[in-house]
Amino acid sequence: MPAETPSEIRIEREEGPTKGRYFVRLDGAEAELTYTRAGDGLIIIDHTGVPAAMRGMSVGQGMVRRAVEDARAENRGIVPLCPFARAQIARHPEWQDVLSR
Question: Which long-range contacts (CB under 8 A, 24 or more apart) does 36-43 make?
Answer without folding.
Answer: 38/79, 40/76, 41/75, 41/76, 41/77, 42/76, 42/77, 42/78, 42/79, 42/100, 43/67, 43/71, 43/76, 43/77, 43/78, 43/79
